[in-house]
Design brief:
Blueprint (H helix, E strand, L loop, with lengths): L1 H21 L3 H21 L3 H25 L8 H31 L12 H9 L3 H27 L1
């Protein structure tokens, strides 16, 4: 039964991500992304990581998607991308795809070579995650918080430009 549920959730996650990529409507893309996040939370639950499952559903499916919907409401969806910007966008997308494939290759190579440590087990509870977050992984945590603040400042600047127009 668990195997059937795993493959069902994996198919839902994969199908919603493919539908998100194929769809041209940004509102539908947001809904497909919420579905993918919820299926991912279910997969975390099946893997024996209930804390990560709840965080996945509450943080990503809830909070992050609300911010994404606000951004969709602020931008003009009717205005297309100009042909000049389209060339740069396609080139940048190809460059990012190449970099992402390289990262995936390096991560898979490192994952296969590394042995699991007790700190990376899925059974770690919130206390252990909090301890690791504020000791061993403090710098990545702080860099993430700076990126979130920068994105908030960018959203405010975009909203102010929109009000002036």
């Amino acid at each position: 039964m668990m195997t059937v549920l795993f493959f069902f959730l994996a198919a839902v996650c994969l199908g919603s991500v493919i539908a998100m990529i194929v769809s041209r409507n940004q509102a539908y893309n947001a809904l497909f992304l919420v579905l993918a996040f919820a299926a991912m939370g279910g997969l975390f639950g099946l893997l024996g990581a209930p804390f990560m499952a709840v965080v996945q559903i509450i943080i990503y499916s809830g909070a992050i998607m609300i911010v994404f919907i606000f951004v969709l409401m602020m931008i003009n969806l009717r205005q297309g991308i100009s042909p000049e910007k389209r060339k740069w966008t396609i080139g940048l997308a190809v460059l990012i795809a190449v970099i992402l494939c390289g990262e995936i290759f390096l991560a898979a190579k490192g994952f296969l070579a590394a042995s699991p440590s007790p700190e990376t087990t899925a059974a770690a509870g919130p206390t252990e995650i909090g301890r690791l977050l504020f000791t061993k992984y403090l710098y990545p945590f702080e860099i993430t918080s700076v990126l979130i603040v920068a994105s908030l400042v960018g959203a405010i600047v975009l909203a102010k430009k929109r009000e002036k127009e």
